[in-house]
Amino acid sequence: MSEHFSEDEMRCKCGCGQVIISSTLSIAQEKLRKADGSVPHIVNSAYRCPKWNKKIGGALHSRHPKGEASDLRSLGMSPRSIALMAETVPEIDGIGLYVSIGRQGRLVQLFCHIDVNRTNKARWGCILYPPSAENPKGRKEFVNYHELSRRLWKECVE
């Protein structure tokens, strides 16, 4: 697929074997990796076949089934740091920061979503809540990207 991202890690995780990745996403991921100082990125999810995207609760108009999105994390930097670096890559149009609620209500950073080929820039934050009696599957709450980023920074320095 590209110098630092293999076809296997970009493939749909359902086992169907499909992989479709836009050349713009490949270029954007490589630029992001270089902007991050060549810290290796781990691809949680890239291409998703429509069936898998629906099964895992992906957005109706997700860019993953088009091969235009990737969810990244790194052993060397936080998802928030990846998101900040993604701001410097012109091909990246969409940036999402995904977190979950940890102990004492503190946020746990999970991954940074990037996507390409949008007509407008998009930024969002998403808090994933664990399953509960009221919500056996858990729930998602979309929040302001910049407020979430500031909250993560504040928790890091406290």
Question: Could you explain the architecture of this structure?
Answer:
By secondary structure, this protein is of the alpha+beta class. It has one domain: Muramoyl-pentapeptide Carboxypeptidase, domain 2. Helices cover 28% and strands 26% of the residues. A six-stranded mixed β-sheet has the order 1-2-4-3-5-6, with helices on one face. A hairpin with a 5-residue loop joins strand 3 and strand 4. The termini are far apart.
- Which sheet architecture does the biggest sheet show? 6 strands, mixed
Strand portion: 25-35%
Name the structural class: alpha+beta
Q: Which CATH top level class fits?
A: Alpha Beta
Q: Specify the helix fraction band.
A: 25-40%
- Rounded to an integer in angstroms, the radius of gyration calculated over CA atoms is 15 Å
Q: Indicate how many domains the architecture comprises.
A: 1
Quick check: average pLDDT? 90
Largest beta sheet: strand ordering:
1-2-4-3-5-6
Number of helices: 5
Weakly predicted, low-confidence segments: none
Which CATH architecture is right? 2-Layer Sandwich
CATH topology: Muramoyl-pentapeptide Carboxypeptidase, domain 2
Shape: globular
Gap between N and C termini: 41 Å
Number of strands: 6
Strand/helix succession: HHEHEHEEEEH
